Amino acid sequence: MRASEKTIHLHVTRQYSGASQATTSRRAGPIWIDLDNTPHVPFFRPIIRELENRGHEVLVTARDAFQVWELAREMGLNCRKVGQHYGKNSALKIFGLVLRALQLFPMVLRNRPKLAVSHGARSQLLLANLIGIPTVGLDDYEHSKCAPFTRARWLLIPEAIPVRTVSSFSDRVRHYSGIKEDVYAAAFRPDSSILRQLRLDPAHIIVTVRPPATEAHYHNPESELFFERFMERVCTNAELRVVLLPRNKKQALDLQKRWPKWFEGGKVVVPEVAVDGLNLLWHSDLAVSGGGTMNREAAALGVPVYSLFRGKIGAVDRQLANEGKLVLIQSINDVDQRIRIERRPKDQVPNFASRRALPDIIGHLENILKECKGD
Predict the structure, then answer these.
(1) CB count in 10 Å sphere of residue 168
(2) How many helices (H) and strands (E) does the chain have?
(3) What secondary structure, in 3-state letters, does 193-211 show?
(4) What is the pLDDT of residue 89?
(5) In this structure, are residues 66 and 248 in contact, taking their beta carbons and an 8 Å threshold?
(6) Cα dihedral 64, 66, 68, 73 sign
């Protein structure tokens, strides 16, 4: 740690420690959950509800990026909006990470959380690690990169991921059953009103498509070629309707500008507001995505799904592919030949009764809280 970093660390820690001593006698602080990206919202909602049902106070913050804030409000979460997105430029990303940590600090100073929990929210991890709040990170992709000071003290991962691939401290890693999407898929109930909302005719074959994450550090341009090839294929078929889910407004505008023919005649629908991803997938005949979460949501529901992701394939996706729940597209020929466009039955919702992801995670968090008290 450089001298300037030590100075900042000591200054912030002393401020926080002073506030902590002043409030220790009044009450224990809340569990702090930070929503940094869109998939975090449905994932953490049942976790928040279950923690509250067990008597824990929960403080929730949300970043104003990728429809995180809008989706959190739509799902009825009481959260505070802090920070935004600064694009794919590396320098701006670092600036945004540090700035959001500073923006979070006054709220943290007031509430003195006893535990910071997120699915890789780097600003939260940075701030919590600097001022001594115990951190729990959830992750389902072992190739994720950690910025300096953003490694969580405890890590919760799906059982498909070997401990050795994520940490050398095996005593701080906990496994949970299944995949993270099982946490919220268990509460899923179909609602056909989404078809009217998006002006979709059930007579058409409905394809939900998620473009690649072009601003992510793991992006491989090959996935864009696969995405464009697939869109060219489906947009020439009059029996199909595509629900396109851009990652942000900028990506939506770029696609409309580059490929205006896709959007002619209502062939491609872009939702104007955040929609329930599970419900949309359930009413789709297949899903094609350049990212991870939507692929695994479809797999959790038993919807045919094809991954255009061309970064390093994680253990969870490899397991789903081996089980036949996910098809990994690896060439242009695969785009044309392996993606099967056909109707699927939608009359029976999968049985989620045996899935233990949620109780496993709650159990781990409560045990970690006990460990923190013992430190």
Answers:
(1) 8
(2) 14, 13
(3) HHHHHCCCCCCCEEEEEEC
(4) 67
(5) yes
(6) positive
pTM of the model: 0.83
Superfamily of structural domain 3-185+356-374: Glycogen Phosphorylase B; (3.40.50.2000)
**DSSP type of residue 136:** E
- Beta-bridged to residue 174, according to DSSP, are 156
| pLDDT average per 10 residues of sequence, the chain (375 residues) | 43 47 53 93 96 97 85 90 74 86 95 96 96 96 85 96 85 94 91 95 96 70 93 93 91 93 92 89 96 91 95 93 96 96 87 86 97 80
- The single-letter code of the amino acid at 219 is H
Amino acid, single-letter form, for residue 164: R
Class of domain 193-337 as given by CATH? alpha beta
| Amino acid making up residue 268 | V
Torsion of CA 29, 37, 181, 221, to 10 degrees: -150
pLDDT score for 16:
54
Structure tokens at 135: 């951190």
The DSSP secondary-structure symbol of 30 reads P
Question: Positive or negative, the Cα torsion across 316, 321, 327, 331?
Answer: positive
- Beta strand 58-64 with 31-35: parallel, antiparallel or unpaired? parallel
Beta carbons within 10 angstroms of residue 205's beta carbon: 18
Closest C-alpha to 141, from 85, 86, 214, 218:
218
CA 275 – CA 271 distance, rounded (Å): 7
Q: Give me the residues paired with residue 158 across strands.
A: 176
Residues of the chain with CATH 3.40.50.2000: 3-185+356-374, 193-337
